């Protein structure tokens, strides 16, 4: 910085103001300083800056199984929101979701002097692990359920499932079958709750739940079972990948969609509108989840306010396409 100041003919403090985008710098001075920075190839020493300011301008993210569309999209939304706020992101992706694995990830990020941490905790075991946190580091959980004293940000899974189930009932279907996600996932649990609530409110009995593991293969297996059952006219599948498997099984068994059975999914993955037929589904706003997570975390970091648990919910959106029709 001293070299930049000398070349630009300004003070060290002026260089600092330019680097921090301070408004009280004349335009011509800012141009002269930036030109000196370019000519010298100056780069900030973030470690030194963190020692002075006690802020690393880096946020940690702990995630699980980022090969799945939901967690991967959530992490992307968080990273984009963090960068827009002027923060770098350090990501730890875990296969093990036990308390020891989560604690190791949090300790690793704490050693990097991150200013705060977002934990993507869609599984119940991951949410339980949030009870054991490093002292003094602000943490926000995405999903997370009742994650101790940690604030959470999540899409309203119950409302999303209710919307799609009510849509199918509104088309005149007597009831709606459900292919669920894994039992340890909070999202799967919420979608079952919303599905059951919509059926109960309509005075309908909830059929047997067919369990899947989020994969197209598990949806395919469930679809083969459903194709052989009498009276099935509508199926709500807990994610679009499993819905793809259901559609494949129905096609092989000669079951017309939506002629004989209407099918709806959840997530609105980019491929959903290109399924055959295009899939009715529930859209999750992962960008909004990322923005709200970073907003909550930065408020904790910047104000050091009393940490009171808050739960922020992002509304889902029903997207109606050609895979559902009147009974």
TrEMBL record:
Q: Name one GO molecular function term.
A: DNA-binding transcription factor activity
- Residue ranges of domain HTH lacI-type in the record: 1-53
Gene3D superfamilies in the cross-refs = 3.40.50.2300, lambda repressor-like DNA-binding domains
Q: Does the keyword Ribosomal protein apply?
A: no
Instruction: Name the SMART domains for this protein.
Output: HTH_LACI
Instruction: Name one matching Pfam family.
Output: Peripla_BP_3
| SUPFAM superfamilies referenced in this protein's UniProt entry, alphabetically | lambda repressor-like DNA-binding domains, Periplasmic binding protein-like I
Question: Which UniProt keywords are listed?
Answer: DNA-binding, Transcription, Transcription regulation
Tell me the InterPro entries matching this sequence: HTH_LacI, LacI/GalR-like_sensor, Lambda_DNA-bd_dom_sf, Peripla_BP_I
This chain belongs to the protein called LacI family transcriptional regulator
């Amino acid at each position: 910085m001293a070299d930049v100041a000398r070349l630009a003919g300004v003070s060290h403090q002026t260089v600092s103001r330019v680097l921090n985008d301070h408004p009280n710098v004349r335009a011509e001075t800012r141009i002269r300083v930036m030109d000196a920075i370019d000519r010298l190839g100056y780069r900030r020493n973030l470690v030194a800056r963190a020692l002075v300011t006690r802020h690393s301008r880096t946020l940690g993210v702990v995630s699980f199984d980022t090969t799945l569309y939901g967690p991967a999209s959530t992490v992307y939304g968080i990273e984009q929101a963090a960068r827009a706020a002027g923060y770098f992101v350090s990501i730890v992706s875990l296969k093990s979701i036990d308390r020891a694995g989560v604690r190791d990830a949090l300790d690793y990020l704490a050693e990097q002097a991150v200013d705060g941490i977002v934990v993507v905790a869609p599984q119940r075991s991951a949410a339980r692990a949030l009870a054991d946190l490093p002292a003094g580091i602000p943490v926000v959980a995405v999903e997370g359920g009742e994650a101790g004293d940690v604030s959470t940000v999540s899409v309203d899974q119950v409302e999303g499932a209710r919307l799609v189930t009510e849509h199918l009932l509104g088309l005149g279907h007597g009831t709606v079958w459900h292919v669920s996600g894994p039992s340890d996932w909070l999202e799967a649990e919420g979608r079952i709750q919303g599905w059951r609530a919509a059926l109960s409110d309509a005075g309908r009995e909830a059929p047997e739940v067919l369990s899947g593991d989020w994969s197209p293969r598990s949806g395919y297996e469930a679809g083969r079972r459903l194709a052989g059952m009498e009276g099935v006219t509508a199926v709500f599948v807990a994610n679009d990948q499993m819905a793809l498997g259901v559609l494949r099984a129905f096609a092989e068994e000669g079951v017309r969609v939506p002629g004989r059975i209407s099918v709806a999914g959840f997530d609105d993955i980019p491929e959903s509108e290109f399924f055959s037929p295009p899939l009715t589904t529930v859209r999750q706003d992962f960008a909004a989840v990322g923005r709200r997570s970073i907003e909550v975390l930065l408020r904790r970091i910047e104000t050091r306010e009393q940490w009171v648990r808050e739960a922020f919910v992002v509304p889902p959106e029903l997207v109606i396409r050609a895979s559902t029709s009147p009974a």
